[in-house]
Amino acid sequence: MDKKEPKILPFNAVIFGGDGDLSKRKIIPAFFHRWIDKQLNMPFKVACVSRKLSDQDAFHKELAKFIQQSSDETVPAKVIKDFLKQVELVNIPKITEENLGGLRDLIEANSDWQRIYYLSVPSAAFSDICSALKGSNLINDTSKVVLEKPLGHDLKSSREINDTISEAFSEKQIFRIDHYLGKETVQNLMVLRFANHLFERAWNAENIDNIQITVAESLGVEKRAGYYDHTGALLDMVQNHLLQLLCLVAMEAPSRLDPDTVRNEKLKVLESLRFFKKDTIADNIVRGQYTRGKSLGEKVNSYLEDIEQYDSETETFVAIKTYIDNWRWKGTPFYLRTGKRMKKRYSEIVINFKPVQHNIFPESKHSMSNKLIIRLQPEERIKLVQMSKIPGPGGYRFQPVALKLDIFDSFEKRMPDAYERLIIDVLRGNQTLFMRYDELEAAWKWIESINKNWKSKAKLVLYESGSWGPGNEIMEEGTQWETNALEK
Ligand code: BG6
Asked: What is residue 202's three-state secondary structure?
């Protein structure tokens, strides 16, 4: 951004669940990379709260491994050690007001620093943490709380969680994280749409035939069987990541880039999503579960084998056709699809434009239409597919040609991980890329219109691991899933 960003003030960050997988793989490495890039050149401390661990040296050794893994090049051990001087392990077997003494000493050693409380724990633990922090007077005007999903399993539980958090923190202090919003191409999407005249003029139902959002994963449920079997793909991925991507693709231009103006526009999209009724589920939604197969050349188990159960109806794949009932998108299908153990890991948004109004090359087998491909991962890329004439004499022969619309190749530097960007936003107090409660509530209402009835209305389809999964049955005539479009 051209405008000057606010300065980051010195801070104490406290990670509850500090010895957990997310903290070790993403949060701590994110602090490290921002520090080594000299963005965190102010005094700071990171306290990792653990219920079990108390050996700081062993913990630091483990963190060092994760930091190393997250780096493209070997980082000298001394550099990691210097960083870890800022990271402290705090053992608190049970979070109660009385047990927060050690943490209080640490925070009050620099009582004028801003305080970031990162709750990387199941939401069932939020209440104890918030009341202990509040009871110990550890929350002041500089404090912020970062919440990891899942924030509930339905509208009711999400309201309960929100009530709990709101007793301790105001909405301005709450940062509900969705790491998909920290991905570079997702932010580039805003620039592409709102800083270029060309696209925004054509960004509507009149010019766009359909929009497809795919988040395909090649991994299975790994070690998260307990969590996943109670959650499933709809709540794990669609309720948050896919809906947030949908909002950014479909929203109106905000009049300013301030957090509430942007989030007001996203909210309008969520509120315009067409609700499902009992009789609209079967034709528009597919639920799937992976069976045995081959993933990246290796034989892999079925979902039931992975979770060590004989029976489970939990979906590991979901495909949805939906509509946004407003002026801009009237009648345009939005296809959302996500699944585990699919053939390849990639996330992509494909905007399929309508064919030209009058085709003067009727003998061509190609449809005269454009396609904008926004690839979020593994690589971050944007391409516009347009029709071109193959050079040479002898009439018109056509070929779709992709124009690169990104500048990633011009940068030698590694792309920061989404968590790095989001953590910096928290430290600066910028809530633009974090969900406001009303957005969350609107997302839950739409999800509930599916969740209430879909188990009886959309039967579970089994798909082979390593395949692209089911989902063709919901496509409109003449439309296909754009699978791995960037590489075609
Ligand atoms: C998480 C889900 O939010 O996102 C996981 O809980 C999923 O099930 C992960 O694997 C995908 O994130 P990414 O950034 O690897 O696409």
From this structure: helix
